[in-house]
Write a structure and sequence with these properties.
The structure holds two protein chains of two kinds. Chain A is built from five helices and 21 strands. Chain A is an alpha+beta fold. In chain A, helix 1 packs parallel to helix 5. Chain B folds into two domains: 4-102, 2-Layer Sandwich (Gyrase A, domain 2), CATH 3.30.1360; 108-242, Beta Barrel (Cyclophilin). Chain B has six helices and 15 strands. A seven-stranded mixed beta barrel of chain B has the order 7-14-11-12-9-8-15. Classes of the chains: A alpha+beta, B alpha+beta. At the A-B interface, strand 16, strand 20 and helix 5 of A face strand 5 and strand 6 of B.
Chain lengths: 336, 247
């Protein structure tokens, strides 16, 4: 079973939930930018949440299915079609061999995830199938997909086969069929065009001047075109952010969501391909529960930050996990 | 610095602060020195032994140790306050790190280096900058005792502390678009080894034939925070004999 890449799109990579445990050796985490979307896509086809899928960016690829497949598409910003007919996001879709999936840009957001029942057959490197573009390792040959690539797929596991049969039985002779249901919207809320990203104060927040602290929470930032999977370079409408007293810092660990401020005063928010350590003062840290809307802001998009407490950030983290668990339970009921 | 008293080792005690909703930082000191580095090393050894669901990974740096966790799992699915639970786990780990059992001899790694020539295009510049001869630079760099302060910047890239102050040199005004893997460089008061070929602005004084980053190994990085490093000067012929790099 395999997928043929007829055209690659802007940046289509194999990603899972990241390479965990090697940051102490300077190896970045990588993984899906919108991890929640990938987890949901995997659950919809009966995969484990951490199974590798495809991350599609801004311009989708064109993919031909060389055998019957069960897939799910999540995330935002692209409208999918199979053999020219629109299909829905966020539900299992059964595609017969020969079906061609492609995308047109649509609405808010910039990343779509495709899960394939049984996963994608790429070898794990250091415990993960995620593509680490700069080091050329992991994923599909350490790089983004190109025209002519043929990705092997191991095919459905025992659990995914149950999902498969439920949907496939409805397809009869059609080229594809999709489930009539979708997960509850609170799990993956509709995206706003200029989202408010909630954040807690960063370790160096108190070192920033009072006007800079105030400006950080008040102003709107533009995600500049010099933004990628490593981080978004932000530019505010007002004055650049500055420390009350200039000072040098010793490098320290930095995670996904860190808002660091280099000397030029324009913040950078770190994302999935962030470096493991950094030496810039950290004014804020986006909360995990808002990583989805953050990951979906396209270049040129706008964001604002809103301060929340650590307790609130962790409550929202746990709430999201609870919703994921509920989805897992509901899906199990649907397919037994 | 280490006074034995009642079976305990007096190490610097860190203060702790959160790094977002999924991280906690142990901040040991404002300056990088041997006691700080030993305290971080002891904690890493203890963390390697801990098996707590939701504890994801740790990242040692100069004066800090950051631990990442999953708040949902660490709080047993929201049954307690995740950050409070993490501080408790860290307190227990720190107590463990005070015992002599956490003491272990640091790993010493010898790194062969071919200094100067095509491998060290900036050797003369570093020498001029220091008012020394190229031979002096090689002698002073090669006789240093170094410790890996941190691994970062690129996979497996070691930041080495312990450079002779006379050899301190500013970064290149124009970074090179491609520095070959194994290049040994100086930036400010640090020395380091390029683990993969990448752009870079360090002053290059030599190259090691050894591979510093080996993704096919279970422990891909040859050097880890806290390891001690000695450089051994080798000839160009010895470099070729020992060369582990591709092409």
């Amino acid at each position: 079973m395999s997928l043929s890449i007829l055209s690659p799109g802007l940046l289509t990579t194999v990603q899972d939930l990241g390479r965990i445990g090697y940051q102490k050796e300077g190896i970045i985490v990588s993984g899906a930018m919108d991890a929640l979307a990938l987890r949901v896509a995997n659950l919809l086809v009966g995969n484990e949440e951490k199974t590798a899928g495809l991350e599609l960016t801004l311009l989708g690829p064109k993919i031909r299915f060389e055998a019957d497949h069960l897939i799910a598409l999540t995330g935002a910003g692209l409208a999918p079609t199979i053999n020219g007919q629109p299909v829905r996001m966020s539900r299992p879709i059964f595609v017969r061999a020969g079906g061609v999936l492609q995308f047109a840009p649509q609405g808010t957001g910039c990343r779509v995830y495709m899960a394939v029942a049984g996963g994608i057959g790429v070898p794990e490197v250091l415990g993960s199938s995620s593509t680490y573009l700069r080091a050329g390792m992991g994923g599909w040959q350490g790089r983004a997909l190109l025209t002519g690539d043929v990705l092997p797929c191991p095919g459905p596991t025992e659990i995914t086969r149950e999902f498969w049969q439920t949907i496939a039985s409805a397809s009869s002779a059609k080229a594809w069929a999709q489930a009539t249901w979708t997960p509850s919207p609170e799990l993956y809320p509709a995206l706003q065009t200029s989202p408010i990203i909630r954040a807690v104060r960063g370790p160096e927040y108190d070192l920033f001047s009072a006007p800079s602290q105030d400006a950080f929470w008040r102003q709107e930032f533009t995600v500049t075109l010099a933004s990628d999977r490593m981080g978004y370079r932000l530019r505010g409408a007002g004055a650049a952010l500055a420390l009350a007293q200039p000072q040098e810092m010793l490098s320290c660990a930095v995670p996904f969501g860190t808002v660091q401020v280099p000397a030029d005063g324009n913040p950078i928010i770190l994302l999935a391909d962030h470096q493991t350590t950094g030496g810039y003062p950290r004014i804020a840290q986006a909360i995990t529960a808002d990583f989805s809307p953050l990951a979906q802001v396209p270049p040129g998009g706008k964001i604002r930050f809103q301060e929340v407490s650590l307790a609130e950030a962790q409550r929202l983290f746990c709430q999201q996990e609870l919703h994921i668990r509920q989805l897992r339970q509901v899906l199990r009921l649907k397919n037994v | 610095m280490q006074n034995q008293s009642g079976g305990q080792i007096q190490r610097p005690q860190p203060h702790m602060y959160p790094l977002g909703d999924s991280g906690i930082v142990l901040h040991f000191s404002d300056v990088f020195d041997a006691p700080t580095q030993q305290a971080i090393r002891a904690c890493c050894a203890c963390l390697d032994q801990l098996n707590v669901p939701g504890l994801l990974e740790y990242v040692p740096a100069y004066t800090t140790l950051t631990i990442y966790y999953n708040p949902w799992l660490i709080s047993q699915e929201g049954r307690c306050d995740p950050y409070e639970r993490m501080t408790e786990i860290m307190e227990q780990m720190l107590a463990q790190a005070q015992t002599p059992a956490a003491e272990s001899a640091p790993t010493v790694v010898e790194i062969p280096v071919c200094y100067g020539g095509q491998f060290g295009p900036d050797l003369e510049e570093v020498a001029r900058n220091a008012g020394l001869s190229a031979a002096d630079v090689i002698r002073l760099h090669g006789h240093g005792e170094y410790v890996v302060a941190m691994v970062g910047f690129a996979p497996g890239f070691p930041y080495l502390a312990g450079l002779n102050e006379q050899l301190a040199a500013p970064r290149k005004a124009q970074p090179r678009p491609r520095v070959p893997a194994g290049s040994v460089g100086i930036a400010g008061r640090q020395t380091g080894i390029y683990s993969i070929s990448s752009p870079g602005g360090w002053q290059l004084i030599g190259r090691t034939p050894r591979r510093i980053f080996r993704p096919e190994h279970t422990i891909p990085s040859l050097l880890r925070a806290g390891d001690q490093v000695r450089f051994v000067s080798v000839s160009a012929a010895e470099f070729e004999q020992q060369n582990e790099h591709e092409s």
